[in-house]
Amino acid sequence: AALQQNGAYGPYEKEFIRKDGTLVPVRLNGFFIHLDGQQYIWSLIEDIRAQRDLEGRLQHEQMVAIQASKLATLGEMAAGFAHEVNNPLAVIEGYAYLLPEMMAQGDASGVDEAITSIRDSVERAAHIVRGLRHLSRRERDAVATENIDARTKDALELCRPRLRSHGVDLRSDLASEGWASIHGMELVQVVLNLVNNAFDAVVAHEERWVSVLTRADDTSVHIIVEDSGPALSEAVRARLYEPFFTTKPLGLGTGLGLSISRTIVTTAGGSLELQEGPRTRFVVRPPRVPRP
Question: Do the bridges between strand 169-174 and strand 209-216 make them parallel or antiparallel, or are there none, so unpaired?
Answer without folding.
Answer: parallel
